[in-house]
Amino acid sequence: MIGSSSSAAELIAHLQTLRSENNIAGMARFGIVTDTAIGISNPDLQKIARLAKKDHIRAKELWVSGIREARMLALYTFEPKRLTATEASALAADFNSWEIVDCAADLFVEAKLYSLIPDFAADEREFVRRTAFAMIAGTAVHRKTDSDESLLAYLPLIEAQATDPRNFVRKAVNWALRNIGKRNRACHAPALALAERLAASTDKTARWIGKDAVRELTGEKLLARL
After folding, report:
1. pLDDT of 178-223, one tens digit each?
2. Three-state secondary structure call for residue 163
3. How big is the CA angle at 177 (ends 171 and 181), to the nearest 5 degrees?
4. Helical H segments across 30-92, by residue range
5. CB neighbour list of residue 106: distance below 8 Å, 6 or more residues apart
6. Is 148 within 8 Å of 136 (Cβ atoms)?
7. Dihedral sign, CA of 117, 122, 124, 129?
């Protein structure tokens, strides 16, 4: 029986019993890296995480295994208050799939590791750079008490990396810009102004990011809500 006293080895052994080749094939169709996947859905992993409870040391052991599901379970069971910037940077060095990045970004935001965002944005590695913008996107939605000014301060980072044509970066930059603009009226105008500037860019990637953000930020439903 899985519980808070389960070791990393016991949790991995349990995960292995749930292997599904069909699920692995389905994940691959969504662009998830499946080299080490067992084929367990994230909702099912979240249920296992609730049984296993948070355990920072064990989470690090799960991560080192390299198995996709063990790493997702690690991200769900790290203790945010104990997670350091050094540990987060070490995790980021292993990132190889967009869904791992997006789950980790939520953890990093919960751990309030905002100081890493500029470093991650400046990093040349595709999935590390994506982490920065996934963190910004998550902050815009989930950190209601953070000031609008702290979010708007990320707009220059968004502009600086809007010409990175790599798929997982450009989508995250676009996501961050849209989420800032959708937050409230105070954030909407500066975000829309940047989106319009990017939409008029001579760079193909920046133009795509800008046009897509403009379309969402000028939608009738959003404007009515704001």
Report:
1. 999 999 999 999 999 999 999 999 999 999 999 999 999 999 888 8
2. coil
3. 140
4. 42-52, 56-64, 68-77, 85-92
5. 138, 142
6. no
7. positive
What backbone phi and psi angles, to 5 degrees, belong to 41?
-70, 155
Distances (CA, A) of 78 to 56, 128, 130, 215: 5, 19, 21, 37
Q: Indicate the burial class of 146 (C-beta count within 10 angstroms; 0-12, 13-18, 19 or more).
A: middle
What pTM was estimated for this model as a whole?
0.94
Distance, CA of 120 to CA of 156 (rounded, Å): 14
- Let me know if 1 is exposed, middle or buried by CB neighbors in 10 A (0-12, 13-18, 19+): exposed
Q: What is the Cα–Cα distance from 134 to 32, expressed in whole angstroms?
A: 16
Both tokens of residue 146?
């953070």
Phi, psi of 154 (to 5 degrees): -85, -10
